[in-house]
């Protein structure tokens, strides 16, 4: 079994100080393939630049991945003491409650330099000769988990046929097609091409939720295309999001919202709800910390944050926050808020739930797929409903919050090991040579020892096991 992982996105994004969600996913896949003995000497990496496919030396890729992961980890410590003090003062915490991650914030110049590993990675010595490329790739599973480079159906088809690859793709979302108003002009057309490429060339598709898979099926039906064999394997929560005891809450109740400040995340409904709460409760109104970088078309939100005097003492914008401090603040918050209009998955929501922190969120199928009935679900445009729920959860004797805490105590969220336990089995099936005996149509992957519920089949049953994939039931004891 050979696997070829496309790391084009990681190469392109390696100059950035912090990763996006998709960057984290591709990095997790690279580290899994490098560190898993099952794939030792059977993993290759490719990058596609200007219609050319470059095969990369696995050992040098490993050094590149380690350096990139270290760089992104150390970037957390670049938050200044002034920024941490602002949070402490906002919440009336004791000085030093949020200490720097390191003894001193890392300057950009002190972060690991990506240029040396990039030069080694792309040097002629480490690029496989043209003859070896075809020989080593014949029959390999080509894995693309970032949507990168799928804008050309002919380009992907040429690569797959020319190198004898069997493509598998991870589909994150179809938001540019279902909600084009929340993406940049032209992104909807690009994403349509990506999804057509996936449908036309995949031997298997991984989706992060049933919602994403259902949207892909709807798109395929509208486009008159068949859906290749597909599975649902929820993305994993990092092991750091454990359930250790929460620190004492501050005297004044507060809430968190986590996500890029952009129209789709719907920060506007929270700010209007907070205005209602401040007008009603005055200084006793709860506080809100907005954690996330500024995105695009957010002028209305920024104007309210910067210029609304009523909210000045009750809303704080925090553009960057180390994960260790984010986890601490999550545990101290009355709830974490997610008023999004659309999501493909919503990993921060599930990270909050893994910490046993109550969640108030939009009533989206993507959230319900895994979170079940535990969160408090609201319509994203119901501003007064959000204000009422926040006021209720802010009370020290809140019955609604206590009820959700009881549900969270019995909830188990998927880890990366669970995600890969499914993906590895599908890779094994897709990689089998033509003519190899296939399992029967009722075959199921073995349940992980860490999984709380057994796997169940989803979609149509097909006799060809190359076209046999199964979806994972939400990892939740609430259903």
Automatic annotation (TrEMBL):
GO molecular function annotation: glycosyltransferase activity
* Family matches, as InterPro entries: Glyco_trans_1
Q: Which organism is it from?
A: Starkeya nomas
Q: Provide the protein name.
A: Glycosyl transferase family 1 domain-containing protein
Per UniProt, residues of the Glycosyl transferase family domain are 244-372
Q: Quick check: keyword Transferase in the entry?
A: yes
Q: Which Gene3D superfamilies match?
A: Glycogen Phosphorylase B
Keywords of the record:
Transferase
Residue ranges spanning the membrane: these are none
Q: Name one Pfam family in it.
A: Glycos_transf_1
